Amino acid sequence: MRTHGFQPADMLGLAAGAVLLVGAYNRGTTALSFVLTMTVIASFLWFLADPNRQRVAENISVTLLGVVYVPFLGAHVILMTGLPHGATITICYIGLVALNDIGAYASGVLFGKHPMAPNVSPKKSWEGTIGATALMFLLALIVGPLLTPFKLWSSVALAGIVTVLAPLGGLASSVLKRDIDIKDWGSVLPGHGGLLDRIDALLLVAPAAYWLIRVAVF
Q: Helices marked H in the chain — which ranges?
C-alpha cells in the first residue's frame, strides 16, 4: 500500500495480526472480536498521536484492511483445527481449495474461451470455473461421506462454498493489485504473484468453511 502513497500504521497492523493468530489459538472466536475492536481504537490513537498525519480516513482503512484480509481471515484456519476431527476438516478444506485451483487451471487450458473477468484476471475463464465446479461436487458426492465428520449434505455444502469463494479470492487479490498498480505481492515466490497469491483463495474460503462446519456439523 505504501507504493501507492498510503501510510498505514505498519507496526500496529503487524502486532494486531500476531495477537489475532495467538488469540484464535488460545481463546477462539472471542479473541477475534476483542482484537479487532482494540485495533480500531488503537488505529485512531495512532493517528491522533502522529503530528504529520495525512489522509487519516484512508490510512486507518488501509491499516484495518491489512489486519482483516490476512490474519483475521487466516485465523479461521486455526479455529478449524480446534474443532472435533479438526485435522481431517482442515486437510479437506485445504485439499478442496487446492484441487479447485488445479481443476480450474486444467479446464481453462483445455477448454477456456470466455474470460470470467477480463479486466481483472484475463486468464480465469468460465470454462475453467465449470470444470472446477464439476470436480468439487464429484469429490463431495464420492469422497465426502466417507470422511468423519462429514455427511453427504455437509460435504456438498462445503464443495459449494469452495466453488463460489475460491475463485472470488483470486479475483479479490487481482483487483487489489490492479488498483495499487503492482504485479506481485512480494518477491518470496517469483513468477507466482507473491506469497499472498498462493493463499488468497484459502483466506476467503476459511471463515465460511469454519462456520458451516461449526454450525451445521456440530
A: 10-27, 29-48, 56-67, 73-81, 86-111, 126-142, 152-179, 195-212
